[in-house]
Amino acid sequence: MYTLYGWRLSYFTRKVAVYMSFKNIPFKEKIMTAYELTIAAKKWTGASVMPILLTPQGKYMQDTWDIIRMLELKHPTPPLIPLTPKKRFVSSFIEAWADEFWVPMAMHYRWNYSESIVFFKKEAGDNMLPSFVPRFVKDIAANEVAKTLISFLPVVGVRDDQKDLIHAWTVDMLGKLDAHFALHPYILGNVPSSADCALAGPLVAHLGRDPWPRDNLIPQFPHVLAWIERMKDPPPLVRTDRKDDDEIPESLRAVVQSALQEFVPMLEATAGQVSEVCKKEKFFNGVKPLPRRLEDITFPVLGKQCQKSAIPFGLWKAQRVISEIHDMTADNQHVVKEFMGSFSGNHFDRLMMLSVPRLERIDVRVKHVQD
Length: 371
Description:
4-stranded mixed β-sheet
């Protein structure tokens, strides 16, 4: 049996837990203690992170993208990464977008509202230390974790002059998703995919649990709320779409269009910085891993300019999305390109032409490798 180490309030732990529940893969969730988070995790994977998956063979794995694709190979039926070309690409693209672009929204609602902070600290303290430990000791431990996470707010774009923009974007996107979920139970229609699992990170673990967005934001969008409830305890997937069913719901187009217009420029700006850094001798061809964050980049959000630090790890994930196209047959590539070309702008072409040195993951960092 697999063991999933993490917390229920964790963005990426929820993604893997939802995936494994849909796939009906036997696993047990293990709440990470302070020792496991700060010491054991580094021995297991090289980084103090969650989630960590322990396989039945005794291997520890970190990073949800790799975990899900390993599990999909070992447990291929029923598939949660679609087999048809349009759905496969859209699912992977939405997965990467949910993993990377939604982070500031999740962080904003957790760390800029007092009731959400109190909620986090209590649960984190209880997770890390046994029940017999006094509350004030748990509070000290939770405060250390909170300080670390709060220090990342400016890095991911949660800055005082951008809080209103983050909130406006979230309301707008929840509206788009609500309109879609009014017609379909899942992102791609009647059957869940890895895109649903990824979106469960920000929406189930954060906005659907943290007190302020749970009580004041999510109730405005009843169909999103219903989707969140489905994702909290997802039933095993017992059927899949027909192999000839590759239609993307019309109601999803507004979500994909937004992701193309904002996520792709963010990736392009990051690629520009990463390309320059990789030219430096100490980072060329994997001599040293790239810094986890670089200088600020600017990209559009709701038609306005937003800033955050360039994070090379997101480019590694973008390269995985692009590889979904390259691994397809010529006919299937044509199908995807024709469909994505139906969206306004040339953002899909820009994604496919993203100029960046090839990257390889090392724990939570990436390194440059020559082609």
